C-alpha cells in the first residue's frame, strides 16, 4: 500500500516562479506510473518520497512503514528509508568499478553478496563490464549499472525516474522486463516516471496523471507482458 498526502513548496530561482507540490494518493497497486508533461512535479514527488525534500505538511507511508508524518514528527532520513532510486542522471561513483557500484550499500558480510552482484549484472547485460570503471561506459551501459545498483539492496520501495531513456528499444524492453520480474519475485512496489504511454500502460497497475504539482486522474491499467 502506498499512502501519500504531502504539500511541498519549492522557492523560485531566478525568473522561475515558486512551485508547490500538493499531492494525495492512496493505492494498493504494486506498480504505479507517474504521467504528465515536464515540470508537472513527477520527479519532485519521487524525491519527496525518497526523503530528499521535506514536506510542510502531510504524511508518506509505504510498505507498512511511516516514512514521514508531520503531525507525529516522523521524518526517516533518506538513507534509512530502504528505497531504491534510479535517477534521470545515473549518479554513479566514477572512481569505482561496475561491480563496486552495483554492490554499494549491500553489506559485505552478506553471504551471497558476490553472487547477487553477478546475477544482477547478468540480468542487466553488463556482466562483461564488472571490472570496468564508470568513466569508460556508454550512457546506456551506465544506466544499466544504475538499475542493477537500485535492485541490489533489495529495497522496500523502488523509484524509477525515466530509467530506460538511454537504451535502444530492444534493450529497453528487456530491462523493463528485468525490473518487473524482480519486483514480482521480491514483492517490491515500484513507482515509475515515464513519458512513454505504451510503457506506462505496460508497467502500471495504476497510472497517475499529474499537472502543475497536482494529481488530475488515477487510471487503472492491466499489465501486459
- Note the run of SSEs as H and E: EEEHEEEEHHHEHEHEE
Q: Sheet with the most strands? A: 6 strands, mixed
Structural class: alpha/beta
Strand content: 25-35%
Radius of gyration: 17 Å
The gross shape turns out to be globular
Q: Average pLDDT value?
A: 89
Widest β-sheet, arrangement of strands = 7-8-9-3-10-11
How many distinct helices?
6
Distance between the termini: 23 Å
User: Percentage of helical residues?
Assistant: 25-40%
Say how many strands there are. 11
Unreliable stretches covering 5 or more consecutive residues: none
Give a structural overview.
The mean pLDDT is 89. It is globular, with a radius of gyration of 17 Å. By secondary structure, it is an alpha/beta fold. Strand 4 (57-62) and strand 5 (65-69) form a beta hairpin. It has 6 helices and 11 strands. The strands form 2 sheets. Strands 7-8-9-3-10-11 form a 6-stranded mixed β-sheet, sandwiched between helices. Strands 2-1-4-5-6 form a 5-stranded antiparallel β-sheet, with helices on one face. 29% of the residues lie in helices and 28% in strands. The longest helix has 18 residues, at 169-186.
